[in-house]
Write a structure and sequence with these properties.
Nucleoside Triphosphate Pyrophosphohydrolase, 42% strand, globular, binds the ligand COc1nc(N)nc2c1ncn2[C@H]1C[C@H](O)[C@@H](COP(=O)(O)OP(=O)(O)OP(=O)(O)O)O1, Oxidized purine nucleoside triphosphate hydrolase, metal-binding
């Protein structure tokens, strides 16, 4: 088990028994204008979906370092303050490895938004998200972000990557275990 994984903090024995792969997901906010920067994924996993910016955490970095690196690589922005706002756990049918996704809000950042090989960035109103072009789970947990609540979400998905068969989503006081 990756020592950076927080799997053992989730009270679910099936979950704890699984292998986990660590990911990050960062949402840059423009609070003055109630906007969030999303990227349209241009290739690979989640192609043609809007999402925050993130990817696999490398073996040599912390989760927060991975979040900053992926944001720069995919959007051109360098986060200067980030808040860990959620933990998402995805279990895909026929995949023995759970995805452990650490979600951050970037409140301040430097640099210029650029399109990368992987992502085409676009600003959206935080109250008018393109959920029909996003992962199925996003519309479930985004309201927690709007309410300023930290959250943990477990989602079980069919192999079609679109159908949620089971979910467990709840607010937490703190993600201090992350
Ligand atoms: C299943 O539902 C999902 N919902 C949301 N909102 N985000 C998800 C979901 N499943 C995966 N993600 C996120 C987690 C990561 O931020 C990316 C996937 O990362 P990727 O596979 O693109 O990782 P990279 O390291 O960038 O990959 P490359 O090997 O292509 O560089 O999606």
């Amino acid at each position: 088990m990756d020592s950076r994984s927080v799997a053992h903090h989730i009270e679910d024995s099936d979950h704890q028994a699984m292998a986990h792969r660590l990911y990050t997901l960062v949402f840059p906010l423009d609070s003055d204008n109630n906007r969030v920067l999303l990227g349209l994924k241009k290739r690979g996993f989640g192609c043609n979906k809007f999402n925050g910016f993130g990817g696999k955490v490398e073996a040599t970095e912390t989760i927060a370092e991975g979040a900053v690196r992926e944001l720069v690589e995919e959007s051109g922005l360098v986060a200067t303050s980030m808040q860990n706002c959620g933990l998402l756990l995805f279990y895909f049918e026929n995949d023995p490895v759970a995805m452990e996704v650490h979600v951050y809000l970037a409140h301040t950042y430097e640099g210029t938004v650029i399109e990368s090989d992987e992502m085409r960035p676009q600003w959206f109103d935080i109250h008018d998200m393109p959920f029909s072009q996003m992962w199925a789970d996003d519309s479930r947990w985004w309201p927690f972000v709007l309410r300023g609540e930290k959250f943990v979400g477990q989602f079980w998905l069919k192999a079609d990557q679109a159908t949620i068969t089971r979910e467990h989503l709840y607010a937490v006081e703190s993600l201090g275990f992350v």
